[in-house]
Design brief:
- The protein is of the alpha+beta class and about 260 residues long.
- The chain has two domains: about 90 residues, lambda repressor-like DNA-binding domains (434 Repressor (Amino-terminal Domain)), CATH 1.10.260; about 160 residues, Beta-Lactamase.
- It contains twelve helices and five strands.
- A five-stranded antiparallel β-sheet has the order 2-1-5-4-3.
- Helix 2 packs across helix 4 and helix 10 packs across helix 12.
- It starts with a helix and ends with a strand.
């Protein structure tokens, strides 16, 4: 079924392309719409036989780099490219490339959205940089978000390098282990990110707990759950954490802490 879906998808995208826009001659013998299989194979630098087999749903193994060239040749959108690699059972070699910073308008909209939430809420990128947070989050993370020391504030730096985090976060050791496992689950998608690599190196040098936990190579998805804090003025506070992935900005997520 998966190979058949892949073949149908490739055939549909091939037939949607305009040979004239791609600089290919129409010719008097062109009877079908779109590109020929041989033309797609030529544009993507793969064997015409292999491409034909892919459309036929045969069981062949195509390299990720060949798929990347094929995605370019077919002018796939980001969603279509992800669909191609998913059906082919391959990891996109460009998925970990550092994405450009989102437009100022998108950040402004994100901040307005976070500000409209009454519960503590904040948004982070894949480097755990805080992009937006509301007043309730400032009140919860007192001494950090209300007085950010490193613009923009970084959740990893706070957890592992700020002594106040040990006092604020209940079961700090266990919570940090989970954060490390969640971080490693996403790390393979951002291997080419030099800024993230520098951050990890600084954390390993500055925190023995981070260095030890990072070597354990635990992996865990973000499953939410209860979060507890020893607030300096409000005492013990408990929340249920819900995390949303931002579809328009891969690697970014919105975290909401619902009081319980």
């Amino acid at each position: 079924m998966q190979r058949r879906l892949l073949g149908d998808f490739l055939r549909d995208r091939r037939q949607r392309l305009d040979p004239v826009q791609l600089g290919l001659p129409l010719g008097s013998r062109r009877r079908t719409r779109g590109l020929r299989r041989e033309e797609v194979a030529m544009l993507s630098g793969i064997s015409a036989t292999w491409y034909t087999w892919m459309e036929q749903g045969r069981e062949i193994a195509v390299s990720p780099h060949a798929l990347a060239r094929l995605a370019t040749a077919l002018s796939l959108s980001r969603a279509e490219r992800a669909y191609l690699f998913q059906l082919a059972g391959r990891h996109d070699p460009d998925a970990g490339a550092a994405a450009p910073d989102p437009a100022a308008e998108r950040i402004a909209l994100l901040r307005r959205t976070v500000a409209a939430i009454t519960a503590p809420a904040y948004a982070m990128d894949h480097r755990y940089r805080m992009l937006a947070w509301n007043g309730a989050a400032e009140g919860l993370f007192t001494g950090w978000l209300d007085r950010p020391a490193d613009p923009p504030p970084n959740m990893l730096r706070f957890l592992f390098l700020d002594p106040a985090a040990r006092m604020l976060v209940v079961d700090w050791q266990q919570r940090c282990q989970r954060v490390l496992a969640e971080l490693r689950a996403d790390y393979s998608l951002h291997l080419a990110d030099a800024e993230l690599a520098d951050l990890l190196a600084a954390l390993q040098a500055g925190s023995r707990d981070f260095a030890t936990g990072w070597k354990q190579a635990a992996v865990q998805g973000r499953e939410g759950g209860e979060r507890a804090f020893n607030h300096p003025t409000q005492g013990l506070l408990r929340f249920q954490q819900l995390t949303f992935a931002l579809e328009t900005q891969p690697g970014h997520r919105l975290v909401v802490l619902h009081p319980v």
